[in-house]
Inverse folding.
C-alpha cells in the first residue's frame, strides 16, 4: 500500500512539474503586447499599429497577405458597471453608425444583427454588419465589454474568406486580453515657452 501511495505521489509530482514547465516556455509563434495595463497575445506575422492617445488605447492588427483586421479601442478612464449603457450610447453606437456609413459610401447595403462573443473571459455584447463589396461578401463584427472597469471595444472585419483564415488570431486576441486596473494617466505635453517680444 505504501508503494502505491509513493507511485501516485511521484506521478502527481511529474505531472505538476511538466505543467509548470510548459506554462513558462515561451510560445515561438506568438507575440505578446503589454503596455499601460493592457496585455494580449497575437500571432507572429501580424503587425501592430498603435495610435493610442490620452483618451484611449487604439490599435490595429493586420498582416500584409490578408484583408482581415482586428481593431482595438480601450477607453482609459474607469467606467462603473451602472454607466455601461450610457457609455455604449455615447461611444459605441456612434462608432457602429460610422462603419455603416462607410459601407454605404462604398456602395454596400449592410445588414445589422445582434451578436455576442467573449472578451477576457467574460460575455461581450456586439453587432454584426454584413455587406457585399465589389461582389465579395464581408463583415464587421463589433464587440464591447467592461473589463476591470474599462470599456473595451474590439472589431474584427474584412472579406469572409480573409476573416475565416484570420479567425485563430481573432480568438487568440480576445481570449488572452487582460487589463490590470486603470491605465496610468498619460503625461500631458508641457507648454512651450515663447520669448516675450
Amino acid at each position: 500500500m505504501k508503494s502505491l501511495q509513493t507511485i501516485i505521489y511521484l506521478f502527481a509530482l511529474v505531472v505538476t512539474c511538466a505543467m509548470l514547465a510548459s506554462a513558462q516556455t515561451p510560445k515561438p509563434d506568438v507575440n505578446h503586447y503589454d503596455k499601460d495595463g493592457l496585455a494580449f497575445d497575437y500571432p507572429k506575422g501580424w503587425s501592430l499599429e498603435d495610435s493610442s492617445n490620452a483618451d484611449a488605447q487604439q490599435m490595429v492588427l493586420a498582416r500584409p497577405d490578408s484583408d482581415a483586421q482586428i481593431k482595438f479601442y480601450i477607453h482609459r478612464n474607469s467606467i462603473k458597471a451602472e454607466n455601461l449603457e450610457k457609455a455604449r450610447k455615447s461611444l459605441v453606437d456612434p462608432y457602429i453608425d460610422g462603419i455603416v456609413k462607410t459601407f454605404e459610401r462604398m456602395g454596400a447595403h449592410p445588414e445589422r444583427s445582434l451578436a455576442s462573443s467573449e472578451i477576457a473571459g467574460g460575455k461581450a455584447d456586439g453587432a454584426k454588419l454584413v455587406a457585399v463589396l465589389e461582389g465579395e461578401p464581408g463583415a464587421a463584427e463589433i464587440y464591447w465589454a467592461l473589463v476591470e472597469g474599462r470599456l473595451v471595444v474590439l472589431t474584427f472585419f474584412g472579406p469572409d474568406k480573409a476573416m475565416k483564415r484570420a479567425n485563430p488570431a481573432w480568438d487568440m486576441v480576445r481570449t488572452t486580453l487582460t487589463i490590470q486596473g486603470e491605465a496610468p494617466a498619460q503625461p500631458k505635453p508641457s507648454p512651450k515657452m515663447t520669448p516675450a517680444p
